[in-house]
Amino acid sequence: MTNRTLQISCSLPNGIHARPASHLEKACAEFACQITLTNLRNGNQGNAKSVLSVVGTDTLLNDEFTLTFEGCDAPEAFAALDIFMRDVFPYCDEPMANVDDSAKVVLPQSLMRYNPELVKGNTLAKGIGAGVLVEMKTFNISVYATNVCDNEAERFAGQEHR
């Protein structure tokens, strides 16, 4: 069994998110060998044949990462992905357009009567978002605490919501 490793610098302006990860997944799916993406900045690893796993590596613009090939067709996969990563992958995404988010929020009168407290987020793309509205009466931030930092609740409480 042959193992090969390919090292790449992420040139995608938005890093590796769902769209480029799906292109990588499709290219890797043609091979039987295991292909692992490792982000050298943070050590996160993911199965290159899984969009969610690749996105979970948090690979950003200019991050160095490796693709490691392990298995029977590793040499063939290495050769094909070497070409793909050089000739195709850098062009499978485009910079996000700057969105003017200074526009005033307009709500229907029926909603304005309730004097809603509006929470403003950062706009990533033009268009309308859709989802399910959920009212949170309580929020336990300790559920999201990590062993990396002990003061998440204090930091969260000190943030101004925009």
Q: What this model shows, in words?
A:
- The chain is an alpha+beta fold and 162 residues long.
- It has a domain at 2-91: HPr-like (Histidine-containing Protein, Chain: A, 2-Layer Sandwich), CATH 3.30.1340.
- It is 25% helix and 15% strand.
- Strands 1-4-2-3 form a four-stranded antiparallel sheet.
- Strand 2 and strand 3 (45-47) form a beta hairpin.
Number of helices: 5
Termini separation comes to 54 Å
In the CATH scheme, the class of the domain at 2-91 would be: Alpha Beta
Sheet having the most strands: 4 strands, antiparallel
Poorly predicted segments:
none
Shape call: elongated
Number of strands: 4
Strand-pairing-aware structural class = alpha+beta
CATH topology grouping of the domain at 2-91: Histidine-containing Protein, Chain: A
CATH architecture of the domain at 2-91: 2-Layer Sandwich
- Share of residues in helices: 25-40%
Radius of gyration: 21 Å
Average pLDDT figure? 83
Name the beta content range. 15-25%
Q: What's the CATH H-level homologous superfamily of the domain at 2-91?
A: HPr-like
Q: Which strands sit side by side, in order, in the main sheet?
A: 1-4-2-3
Secondary-structure element series: EHEEHEHHH
Task: Summarize the helices and strands and which ones pair or pack.
Elements: E1 2-9, H1 18-28, E2 34-39, E3 45-47, H2 51-55, E4 64-71, H3 74-87, H4 109-112, H5 152-158
